[in-house]
TrEMBL record:
<dbReference type="GO" id="GO:0005525">
    <property type="term" value="F:GTP binding"/>
</dbReference>
<dbReference type="Pfam" id="PF00071">
    <property type="entry name" value="Ras"/>
</dbReference>
<dbReference type="InterPro" id="IPR001806">
    <property type="entry name" value="Small_GTPase"/>
</dbReference>
<comment type="similarity">
    <text>Belongs to the small GTPase superfamily. Rab family.</text>
</comment>
<dbReference type="GO" id="GO:0003924">
    <property type="term" value="F:GTPase activity"/>
</dbReference>
<dbReference type="InterPro" id="IPR027417">
    <property type="entry name" value="P-loop_NTPase"/>
</dbReference>
<keyword id="KW-0547">Nucleotide-binding</keyword>
<protein>
    <recommendedName>
        <fullName>Ras-related protein Rab-28</fullName>
    </recommendedName>
</protein>
């Protein structure tokens, strides 16, 4: 990242507490003093999405006496399973906006947008506006031949209203 012409390296500590019980006493120790909280849920699991509210409450409770609340991001994971999505893009964006969270999507399995999530989070913390090149640095262009099969075309269903992922027909 470039901030006023100077490239600065920043170190970040990441605590993955997703496997922890929300009632665990250790949770408070991980969250206290955090500058950012990435609340990740599974886009194919509505219960996972519903649990976001509980995690938000924990973050707010633990950080309520801190000078500045942590920067938060709502992260929908498993975008590689778009065909199994149950949490709509609209629901994701509505929740993110309601709680002033940065809305993001990733696929931990494929690595899609994971680096961008961290890059954007650090840029937001440092109040750096990323250039378009920085924002697009991790985009992988996949090229392939589109084959047309009349039988397959009849079976296709337009799911574009349920997703922000490109649908080629």
């Amino acid at each position: 990242m470039d901030n006023n012409g100077a490239d600065d390296e920043k170190n970040i500590k990441v605590w993955d507490i997703g496997g922890q019980s929300i009632a665990s006493e250790m949770i408070d120790k991980y969250i206290a003093g955090a500058q950012a909280a990435l609340i990740v849920y599974d886009v194919t699991n509505m219960r996972s999405f519903d649990n976001v509210q509980d995690w938000l409450q924990v973050v707010k409770r633990v950080t309520k006496n801190e000078e500045k609340p942590p920067h938060t991001a709502l992260v929908g994971n498993k975008t590689d399973l778009e065909q199994k999505r149950v949490v709509t893009v609209e629901a994701h964006n509505t929740l993110a906006k309601k709680h002033d969270m940065m809305p993001m999507y990733v696929s931990a399995k494929t690595g899609d947008s994971v680096l961008m999530l961290f890059r954007q989070t650090v840029a937001d913390l440092l109040k750096i506006v990323l250039s378009k090149a920085d924002q697009e640095a991790d985009i992988v262009v996949v090229e392939g031949e589109i084959q047309s099969d009349a039988r397959e075309a009849r079976r296709r269903v337009d799911h574009s209203q349920n997703s922000n992922v490109c649908n080629v027909m």
